Amino acid sequence: MLAYIIRRFLLLIVVLFGVSVLLFGILMTFSPERRAATYVTSPQQAKDIPKIIRQFGLDDPFYAQYFRWIKEVAKGNMGWSLVSARPVSEAFWTYLPVTIEMNLFAAPIVIFFGIWLGTLAGINRDTWIDHSTRIMAIVGWSLPTFLFALVMLMVFYGYFNLFSPGILSDQLAMFIYDNPDRFHRYTKLYTVDGILNGRLDVTLDAMAHLVLPVMTYIIVVVALNMRVMRSGMIEELSKDYVITALAKGADKRTIHIKHARRNALLPVITVAGQMVAYSMEGSVAVEVVFNRQGIGWWLAESAIQLDMPVLMCICLFMGVVFVVTNLTLDILYAYIDPRIRLT
Amino acid sequence: MGQHPRLRELKFTLHRIFRNPAAIIGFTLLFFFTAVAIFAPQIAPPKYAHNPYIMPHKGYSPTPKPPSKASIFGTTSGQYDIFYGAVWGTRTAFKIGLFVVGIATIVGIALGAISGYYGGIIDEILMRITDIIWAIPTVVLAMAIVVAFGRGLDKIMIALALIEWRWYVRVLRSEILTLRDQDFVHAARLMGVSDLKIILRHILPNAIYPVLILASMDMGSMVIIAAFMSFVGLGAPPGYADWGQMVALARNYIVGPPDDPFKFWYTIVVPGGCIVLFVLAWNLIGDALRDAFDPRLRRR
Predict the structure, then answer these.
(1) How far B186 CA sits from the closest chain A CA (Å)?
(2) Does the beta-carbon distance from A26 to B145 stay under 8 Å?
(3) Is the CB of B125 inside 8 Å of chain A's CB atoms?
(4) Which of B134, B262, B282, B296 best probes binding to A when mutated, by most A CB atoms within 10 angstroms?
(5) How far apart are CA A35 and CA B98, in angstroms?
(6) Which of A119, A115, A148, A182 is nearest to A290 (CA)?
(7) What residue in B sits closest to A20 (Cα-Cα)?
């Protein structure tokens, strides 16, 4: 087990190194002149471009520039963001809580509904329950997140005038901005900070703004979870121990919930890593449409304005999150299921 | 039955597929979209013969106009004809899907077969490279590549093709790993059949189904991702017949005036409906293929 973890850890370093080389390689497809141009702010400075290239070593060989870059990244210096007009690493921490907040609300609901509906479909295989969850899954899979988000806005905001886009109502946002001493941003999550500051109206307002994004997100992501759970359930229910339990007279509910479901949960853990990637992708679309200034929104905005340092920072961040989650899940998997021997 | 066993299996598979109502809906939708794509010049005659993908527009008013005799689905922001865009957008969608999935499949099959069949150090290196690309979500990496290469629908297609092969390598490799040590492969090798022939004639036909299912599902999801990137503003120039961009044009009109909130419904329902139905068609087909090829469900 320990040897496995060490091996995986070494591989993690290899992958992260590869990701950084890949990203830097993408950046290096820009010509030295084009990269130098980011330092130029007025037309008069354009004649200095050859000087800038020499000064910053922009036409050095790839590895020299790469090591200079990775040294800065290791120090936490990710460069300057044009979109945010701030250093990337500083801006990153203002956008991250928004994305985390949404995921904190969405993830438990996705997991709960996925497992519940999947179990239900697996137990009632080939009945109308199974067929309708299957149709739901395929349709959910076919709905582009951004389109579904727009339709949600159209119906709930446009027609019912219920939930508005954004993170917080303007009035409350202005109040918090103007009174940093009366409203402390302990966690930077509005829902939590509202409670900590004794301002329930902020919490409720932030939650009202979360309803549509979270709903959009769930309906699109839950399908995968549900289908995996369903096939796991069907597989487990056909195994000998279930038949034995039935023969001994155990009631169906006990068999389904206590015996089969626990085993069927294992494959769900293996796809959880994939779900992390999907949820990161999904949050880009949701944040763009609902105008929530999180990581996904920042990514899209930077892509439009060709803000390469931001794109590299987000790619690197997501790469780290993805690789570390997968490693954790694999170790967790072996821990939960003793039949698995890691080599 | 004097038929070749592979032919017999194929017949059985087709029979299974077309017993499934979902597959019939899927293939009907696909047939419809294919017909629209092929006969696009007849259905919506282009105004600019040299560049039929540019949507014709009468005037520049940003306010959409409801369906009328002149444009049966109405016009979207910028007075682009929605019907024309929907018809020619079908071609764009097919172009995106076929290009990305085609390249991803070819690259994936080649690398996956080499990696799975030979194993050893080649496998190790190829799998680590796949791991690296695997670590970044498709949309995020595609955006970074598009920014580096420059905007445009063709750049989006190239970026997605550069990323998407990673799925095919993994799927095909794991299939081949289970086949590699089976008796019929050993027998072929003992008889002196060349590696290339073993892979092409004995292994690939048995390992290709999961790849086909994946490819079918991918046709849809690639169109979704490309549409999203167009929606964000990384795609085709304004006026290009592309469903994602038409949704982007509708974006400011999803909420109408207070007395009639759904006033501009046609601007989003038509292109949005096209995307959903197109993707649904491929997903239904993929799902039916999975049922038909799943050995556990096959003979019952």
Answers:
(1) 27
(2) yes
(3) no
(4) B134
(5) 34
(6) A148
(7) B132
Instruction: Determine the pLDDT at residue A239.
Output: 87
pLDDT digits (tens, 9 = 90+) for B77-113: 888 888 999 999 999 999 999 999 999 999 999 999 9
**Closest CA relative to residue B136, chosen from A24, A14, A319:** A319
* AA identity, residue B124: E
Tell me, letter by letter, the H, E, C secondary structure of B38-75. HCHHHHCCCCCCCCCCECCECCCCCCCECCCCCCCCCE
Q: Do B283 and A29 touch (CB under 8 A)?
A: no
Nearest-angstrom CA–CA distance, B44 and A190: 51
Give B182's DSSP letter.
S
**Hey, are the CB atoms on B275 and A319 less than 8 Å from each other?**
no
Q: Which of A248, A231, A261 is nearest to A133 (CA)?
A: A231
CA distance A97 to B7: 57
Q: Bridge-partner residues for A80, per DSSP?
A: A87
Least Cα separation, residue B174 to chain A (angstroms): 15
User: Cβ contacts of residue B182 below 8 Å, gap of 6+?
Assistant: none
Taking contacts as CB-CB distances below 8 angstroms, the residues of chain A near B174 are none
Residue pairs spanning A and B at CB distance below 8 A: 134
**What is the mean predicted confidence (pLDDT) over A206-228?**
86
* Strands, E assignment, chain A: 80-81, 86-87
Asked if A23 lies within 8 A of B144 by C-beta distance, the reply is yes
Give the helix ranges, DSSP H, for B65-179.
Answer: 82-118, 120-134, 138-149, 153-179
Q: What does the alpha-carbon distance between residue B263 and residue B254 come to, in Å, rounded to a whole number?
A: 8
Using only C-alpha atoms, chain A has a radius of gyration, in whole angstroms, of 25
Q: Describe chain B by its helix, strand, coil percentages, rounded to 5.
A: 70, 0, 25
CB of B220 less than 8 A from some CB of A = yes
Residue B237 has pLDDT above 80, yes or no: yes
Sign of the Cα torsion B247, B251, B252, B253 reads positive
Query: Does B21 contact A at CB distance below 8 Å?
Result: no
**Contact across the interface for A15 and B135, Cβ inside 8 Å:** yes
Which pLDDT score is estimated for B188? 92
What is the residue type of B128?
A: R
Given B22, B136, B138, which is nearest A319 (Cβ)? B136
User: Can you read off the two tokens belonging to residue A84?
Assistant: 């945010």
Rounded Cα–Cα distance for residues B239 and A126 (Å): 47
- Which chain A positions have a beta carbon within 8 Å of B224's beta carbon? 144
* Chain B residue whose CA is closest to A273: B135
What SS3 class is residue A339?
coil
Angle at A192 between CA A188 and CA A196, to 5 degrees: 100
What is chain B's Cα-based Rg? 23
Determine, for residues A18 and B132 on separate chains, whether the beta-carbon distance falls below 8 Å: yes
pTM of the model: 0.90
Close Cβ partners of A342 (under 8 Å, ≥ 6 residues apart):
A1, A4, A330, A334
Q: How far apart are CA A32 and CA A34, in angstroms?
A: 5
Kindly tell me if the per-residue pLDDT of B299 is higher than 60: no
